[in-house]
Design goal:
Length: about 220
């Protein structure tokens, strides 16, 4: 186990690639947490360094200091990753990201409102200076949809609606299995439920696409 590193103000500013004056400004704007005080000396640590690098990356991507301050507050008061992931085994692979990596995934779409909704849905949690997304598949699909021109707010809103439907489907499948087998079989048979949902969704999309290509009835 390595000892926690600490830095004086000048050393921290140099490592972050900013001036001491800028560091003081960020501290006054509460963009970074207060340092540890030892008499007249202020000591900063790797948490401060990570936050300063995040601020620099977000500024480079066009975020304002006000927006960064709001995002920092949302992250500082967000759901802990343990609350999001829980203790139940899952087939989904969590993804650990820095805030700037998350911003890079969703160019210009990481706002306080979107971050709050993602936290409310349980998609993301905080782990120190990192953000953890609960599912690599959902993260990839969400970022792909945003790249296709769909606003992240609408993607998240759709996710909320999908959540309501799949909760009902999961409950229906669980009731079916438990009527005829045991609780232990529910985990073993979950791939069957997933296959049914994927097949039915594929068929539903076929029906929707067919309706879109059908010629309207001719007028006599």
């Amino acid at each position: 186990m390595t000892d926690k590193r600490e830095y004086r103000m000048e050393e921290l500013a140099d490592l972050a690639g900013i001036t001491v004056r800028t560091l003081r400004f960020y501290r006054e704007r509460k963009l970074i947490p207060p340092p540890r005080r030892e008499g007249r000396i202020a000591w900063y640590d790797d948490h401060h360094l990570a936050r300063l690098r995040t601020i620099g990356a977000l500024l480079d991507r066009g975020h304002t200091l006000t927006g960064i301050a709001e995002l920092a507050e949302a992250l500082d008061h967000g759901r802990d990753v343990a609350d999001v992931l829980g203790v139940t085994p899952t087939e989904e692979e969590p993804v650990r990201l820095t805030p700037e990596e998350l911003a890079a995934r969703f160019e210009g779409e990481i706002t306080t409102e979107n971050l709050a909704l993602a936290m409310e849905l349980g998609y993301v949690g905080t782990d120190g200076d990192f953000v953890v997304h609960i599912s690599r598949r959902l993260l990839d699909v969400s970022s792909d949809l945003v790249r296709e021109g769909i606003p992240l707010a609408e993607v998240l809103s759709a996710g909320k609606r999908v959540r309501q439907h799949v909760d009902d489907l999961a409950e229906m499948f669980a009731e079916l299995v438990l009527r005829h087998t045991s609780e232990n079989d529910l985990q073993r048979l979950r791939p069957l439920a997933r296959s049914v949902v994927e097949a039915e969704l594929s068929l539903a999309l076929d029906r929707r696409l067919r309706r879109g290509t059908e010629a309207p009835p001719s007028r006599q």
